[in-house]
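Entry 14. Ran structure prediction on the chain below.
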Amino acid sequence: MSHEKIAKELAGAEEPIVLIYAFNATGKTRLSVAYKDATKSGSGKHAGVYYNAYSEDLFVWDNDPENGETNIQLDIRKSSLNRFHSSLSEDNIRDKLNRFRPNYRFDFIPHDNPEDGIASVMFFREVADPADANKVSKVPLKISRGEERIFVWCFFLALFDVEGWADKQSSHFFIDDPVSSLDDHNIFITASTIFDLIEDHHEKRKFVITTHHIGLFSILVDMLTKGEKASTFKKRTRILTLSIKNGGVSLESCRNEVFLYHLRLLQVLDGAHAANEVKAYHFALLRQVLENISSFLGVGQFGYVLKQIGIGDIEEVAVILNTLSHKKVYYYESDDLKPDNLDMFNKVFLGLKYKYQFVLHTPTKEAVDSAPAKEPMKATNATTKKTVKKAAKKSAKKAARKAPKP
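Output, structure tokens:
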């Protein structure tokens, strides 16, 4: 099947929300362009608005090498969107950025002609004069690639609110992977911004969301079909995979096909556990794994799986898992876990590994322990920590014995 045929199928889908997990080399950006062409009006006007690689390509760094990076700034290439810049302010962007907790400040630098919009963005830190604390200078800086991607996404979120663009091209939103170069925590915050956008507009607009990131896909699936608003969105959401089959692109339903992405989720969790970097947002992935296993076993609630792996107080653990999977945990609160919650994560995760003997091919605890030292995980007590480490080593040895030999 071609991208053009898939685009027409998606445009004709009854569900207003379409979420697609796209495997590598399947052409997500090409699909967004094909969808744009498939939904244009007879006069050639765009019916909806888009966020994709072309959106990110509008932002280019001017590193100012001639002046030793004294005036480094992020330039915004001219496009049809510039005419809407006059309705944007720094505060509009800050409102969208707040949940990501940025550690920089920024100013817009306009074109000489106001109708041409914003020419560039200067990111800076404020430095006080040693001789006079009341004198503060703005020192330009280059933010990281991940911070840049977050800023650009928030710029577009603010632009979606501007009168004359998204309210005129109001048929749909097509969002293609606004998560490149982001760490896990910011990926989950990005998922919450997409969910908020869906909440605000799903009654009148269609959403097509494509991603290759298993975490973003998983948390959006959870929010839309199993979260606190599932009664609103579950029947209105179509969940698909995009893959290469027989030399062409194939679009298939996750609900009709066996899609074992729980193995990738387990790899992410295993890596975080081995590196002593388990955070609150990892509970969302852990809950998704539990639900996938319970569905595979033919039971509706993941409490059955908790019982199978030897968890005692199933109801209490389920409450904690559900609470820490809530989207608002991902921002405004600390990422760090309380010792009791960390201990519970270890028991559930290691219990899954022992019971079902998944072969994950992730770095073993021993390999991570031989790497440069990091701040150790906290545990409820020394005995728990020692037990968890011993159990992880035993699990790694079992996995190594079961792994296929080359």
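Residues 3-48+169-253 form a domain with the Rossmann fold fold (CATH 3.40.50). Will compare against last week's run tomorrow.
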